[in-house]
Specification:
The chain is an alpha/beta fold. The protein folds into five domains: 3-96 and 209-231, RelE-like (YaeB-like fold), CATH 3.30.2310.20; 100-200, no CATH class; 234-332 and 442-504, 3-Layer(aba) Sandwich (Rossmann fold); 341-419; 510-686, P-loop containing nucleotide triphosphate hydrolases (Rossmann fold, 3-Layer(aba) Sandwich), CATH 3.40.50. The chain contains 27 helices and 26 strands. The strands form seven sheets. The chain has a six-stranded mixed sheet with strand order 2-3-4-5-1-8, with helices on both faces. The termini are far apart.
C-alpha cells in the first residue's frame, strides 16, 4: 500500500488555499492508498529537473507535485499549484539527501545557478569573502554539497545569504547562517545539525531519508490519518521538532532539567514531546502543568494531537497547578471557601487599621507571599532570621515584630473563618503530599515555568519522588508577567549542569523580534537559578515587514486607525481569526470590541480559552495573549500612564526594589504581547507614548 508524506512547506500553503481547493486536495489524497509507483494517478513530468518528480491531478486547473522513490512505496507531496505553475516549479527544483543529517532536502536549482554567476563576478573584485575563515572540509562535514559549497564560496556579504534563504536547502542555509553570525563550526553543529554518522547516508535512498525527516515531513498512515493532518495543518506542524529541540527531549537526566529560550523558540513543543517520551517509557504517570487554565487547555489540545496511542495518552495528566493543588486538597478536606482578592485586601486593611501599622496593604501582602510562604516561615523567631533578598525596604527587629504580628493576625483570621487563599491551598496540598510514602506522579513537566510561585514549586517538588528525570521545566524569565520570583535551588529543584537553551525563533519575523527585543534593552533579568538570564543570540530566520509604530492625538483617532488597519489586513486575504488586538486593561477591551462592532468587523473577547472556532478578530488583555499567536497583531493604547498603569507599580518611596521589579514585569508584559505576532505588528498610542517605547528611539 502506498504511503504518503506531506512536506512542511505545503502544510503552510494548504492553510492559505481557498476552501474549495482544500476540499479537492483532501478528496484526491485520501484515495492515495490506491496509488502505486507505477499507478495511473501519477504522471511523469517532461523536462523535470528531478526525474523522481511526478504530478497528480487535483482538478482541471490544479496539480500536485509528488516525490516518488525509484523503489519502495513512500511518497511525499511537495506542493499544489495551478497547472502551469506546478510544472514550472518541477522544472526548477530537485530533491537530495543531506550528507550530514540524512534528511530530505528540496532546492531551487535554477535559482542557485542563476544567482551563482552574478555572485561570482562580484566576488572577483571583493577584498574578502564571507566564509574565508571556514575550510571546505568543515563545510562538507556540516552537510554542504558541492553546489551549495560553490555558492557559499561566492558570497561576500551576509545580505546575499539572507536573499538566498528562499531557494537554498533549509538545513544547509541554517549552517551558513550560523557561521555568518559568528558561530564556530563546532557551535553550529551543536545547535543546528543532527548527530554525525561517520558512515554517511545513501544519497539515492529517498525512502530512508523521508523516514529520517520527521522535522520536515509529516507521514500519514492511511486516509483517516491524512484527513487529521489537513484538518489541523499548522497545529500539526507545530508538534514537529528541530534537531536541537529533539536533543533536549530525548536526553536522560540525573535529576531535574530545564530548557530556556526566547519567544517562539518552541519551548512548549519541547515540553509536549518530553511528556510523550516519558509516558512512552512507562515508568509512571506524568503530570504536565502550567500556571493558567488557558495554557493548560492549549497543552491538552497539543497532547491529544501529538499522542496517538490511547494507553500512552492516559498516562499524561494535564492540569494547571492550582487545579492540581485543589485536587489534592479535596482528597482530605471539603471544597474550600476561597477569599477573593478584594476580601483579602479588606482583611489586610482592617489589620493595618487596628494595629496602627506604618505599612501599606500591598507591602504586607507581598511580604507574606514572598518571604513567609516562600520560605515556610512558621514563627516569629524564624521570621526574624528570614532572608528578605529583593525586598527593597529594610526592616529592623521592631519593624519585623510588627509585620509578623500583622501576618499572624491575617492567618489566624483565615483559620477562624474557615477560609483559604489559592496560596494556602497550595501550602496545605504540599503538606499532604509530603506525608505520603508514595507520590502521585513519577514525572512532572512544567511549561511557562517563570510564572510559578515558590509555594507552587514546592507543591510540584512534592508531587514526584526525587529520581532521575523527575522534573522537566521550560520557561523564559524575559516573559515573566506575574510578580513571582523564585530560586529553584531553595525549593529543592537543582538544574545546574542540566540546562539547555533554544535560540531560533520559529514564530516571529526577524524584524518583529528585533523591535520587541529593544523593549528589554538594558534590563537585568534573573534566571531562576541564582544567576542572570541572557536573551542574546535569540534570532529569527524569517524576514518580513517592519513593525508599524505610530502615535495619535486622541483615543478616537487611534481607534479609527485600528479599524482601518484591520480592514486592510482582512482585504489582503488574512482571515479575521488570524488577527489579534492586545490592550492593557479589561476596560479598553470593551472599548475596542464596541468600536469594531460599530465598524462591522467580526470580533470576540478572549475570556480564557482559545478562539480557534471563531472566525473573528480576537481582542484581549496582554495577559490573555500569553501562549497565543496571530499572523497579524495590533497592540493598542501603549500610552503614557496606561502602560504601565500606576496601580500596577509600587511607589519607589515605599519599596525601591519592588518598584524596579514591577516596572520590569510590566515591560516584559508588553514584550510578550508584541511577540505574539507572526507576520505583521502594529503598535499605537494616543497622547504621550509609554516610557517603554522610548528605548526604541
Amino acid at each position: 500500500m502506498a504511503r504518503l508524506g506531506i512536506d512542511k512547506d505545503f502544510l503552510h500553503e494548504f492553510a492559505k488555499l481557498e476552501k474549495q481547493v482544500q476540499e479537492r486536495v483532501s478528496q484526491t489524497l485520501t484515495k492515495f492508498d490506491q496509488v502505486s509507483h507505477a499507478g495511473a494517478h501519477l504522471e511523469k513530468i517532461a523536462n523535470a529537473r528531478d526525474p523522481r518528480f511526478r504530478s497528480i491531478r487535483i482538478s482541471d486547473f490544479w496539480r500536485g507535485i509528488v516525490l516518488a522513490p525509484e523503489s519502495g512505496d513512500s511518497y511525499t507531496l511537495l506542493t499544489v499549484l495551478p497547472h502551469d505553475d506546478a510544472y514550472a516549479w518541477a522544472k526548477r527544483r530537485k530533491a537530495s539527501v543531506n550528507a550530514a543529517t540524512g534528511r530530505i532536502e528540496i532546492r531551487d536549482v535554477a535559482a542557485v545557478e542563476d544567482s551563482l554567476s552574478g555572485l561570482s563576478r562580484l566576488a572577483e573584485t571583493a577584498p574578502s569573502r564571507l566564509f574565508d575563515h571556514v575550510k571546505d572540509s568543515q563545510l562538507r562535514q556540516l552537510g554542504l554539497d558541492e553546489q551549495i559549497l560553490a555558492f557559499a564560496r561566492a558570497l561576500t556579504d551576509s545580505t546575499q545569504l539572507d536573499a538566498a534563504k528562499s531557494f537554498l536547502p533549509g538545513n544547509q542555509w541554517d549552517v551558513l547562517f550560523g557561521l555568518a553570525a559568528g558561530y564556530t563550526p563546532e557551535q553550529v553543529w551543536a545547535e543546528l545539525a543532527a548527530e554525525v554518522n561517520d558512515t554517511g547516508f545513501d544519497p539515492d535512498d529517498l525512502e530512508a531519508a523521508v523516514e529520517r525527516s520527521s522535522d520536515r515531513v509529516v507521514l500519514a498512515d492511511g486516509p483517516e490519518d491524512l484527513m487529521a493532518v489537513f484538518r489541523h495543518p499548522l497545529a500539526t506542524w507545530r508538534i514537529y521538532l528541530h534537531p536541537v529541540q529533539r536533543s533536549a527531549v530525548e536526553a536522560s537526566y540525573n535529576g531535574p532539567a530545564r530548557v530556556t529560550g526566547g519567544p517562539g523558540t518552541g519551548k512548549t513543543v519541547v515540553t509536549m514531546h518530553r511528556a510523550h517520551q516519558l509516558a512512552v517509557n512507562g515508568a509512571g504517570p506524568v503530570l504536565m502543568t502550567t500556571f493558567t487554565s488557558t495554557l493548560a487547555e492549549s497543552l491538552g489540545t497539543g497532547v491529544k494531537l501529538l499522542v496517538e496511542e490511547p494507553e500512552v495518552r492516559e498516562r499524561i495528566h494535564v492540569h494547571h497547578v492550582d487545579q492540581f493543588a485543589n485536587r489534592i486538597f479535596r482528597e482530605h478536606h471539603e471544597s474550600p471557601t476561597i477569599l477573593t482578592t478584594d476580601e483579602q485586601r479588606q482583611l489586610w486593611q482592617s489589620i493595618v487599621t487596628d494595629l496602627e501599622l506604618p505599612f501599606s496593604v500591598n507591602f504586607l501582602a507581598e511580604e507574606w507571599r514572598q518571604v513567609v510562604l516562600a520560605q515556610r516561615v512558621g514563627s516569629a523567631e524564624q521570621y526574624l532570621g528570614a532572608k528578605r533578598d529583593g525586598r527593597g525596604r529594610g526592616l529592623g527587629s521592631r519593624q519585623r515584630a510588627q509585620v509578623w504580628q500583622a501576618i499572624w493576625e491575617f492567618e489566624s483570621e483565615q483559620r477562624r473563618r474557615g477560609v483559604w487563599t489559592h496560596e494556602t491551598i497550595c501550602v496545605e496540598a504540599t503538606r499532604l503530599l509530603e506525608q505520603r510514602t508514595e507520590r502521585p506522579y513519577r514525572h512532572v513537566v512544567v511549561d511557562e515555568a517563570q510564572d510559578l510561585s515558590p509555594v507552587q514549586w514546592r507543591l510540584l517538588r512534592a508531587a514526584a519522588p526525587e529520581l532521575p528525570d523527575d522534573i522537566f521545566l521550560a520557561g523564559d524569565t524575559h516573559q515573566r508577567i506575574y510578580n513571582n520570583r523564585v530560586s529553584l535551588r531553595e525549593v529543592g529543584i537543582r538544574v545546574t549542569g542540566r540546562s539547555s537553551r533554544l535560540n531560533v525563533n520559529y514564530r516571529t519575523t526577524a524584524e518583529i523580534l528585533a523591535w520587541s527585543l529593544g523593549l528589554l534593552r538594558g534590563e537585568t533579568i534573573d534566571d531562576m537559578d541564582e544567576g542572570l538570564e541572557a536573551i542574546a543570540g535569540c534570532r529569527s530566520e524569517v524576514r518580513g515587514k517592519h513593525p508599524w509604530v505610530r502615535g495619535f492625538p486622541t483615543r478616537a483617532a487611534e481607534l479609527e486607525q485600528l479599524v482601518t488597519t484591520l480592514r486592510e489586513w482582512i482585504d489582503t486575504g488574512i482571515a479575521p481569526d488570524e488577527i489579534g488586538v492586545a490592550v492593557r486593561s479589561n476596560k479598553l477591551v470593551e472599548t475596542v470590541v464596541a468600536e469594531l462592532g460599530k465598524a462591522g468587523i467580526p470580533r470576540v473577547k478572549l475570556l480564557g480559552g482559545t478562539t480557534e472556532e471563531e472566525n473573528a478578530v480576537a481582542v484581549g488583555t496582554m495577559h490573555r495573549m500569553k501562549g497565543l499567536e496571530f499572523r497579524c497583531l495590533a497592540v493598542v493604547g501603549v500610552t503614557e500612564h496606561q502602560v504601565p498603569p500606576p496601580s500596577a507599580i509600587t511607589p519607589a518611596e515605599e519599596d525601591a526594589s519592588a518598584h524596579r521589579r514591577d516596572t520590569q514585569r510590566e515591560r516584559c508584559l508588553l514584550f510578550v504581547a508584541c511577540t505574539r505576532a507572526r507576520e505583521q505588528l502594529a503598535v499605537s498610542w494616543h497622547g504621550g507614548k509609554s516610557p517603554f517605547l522610548h528605548t526604541q528611539n
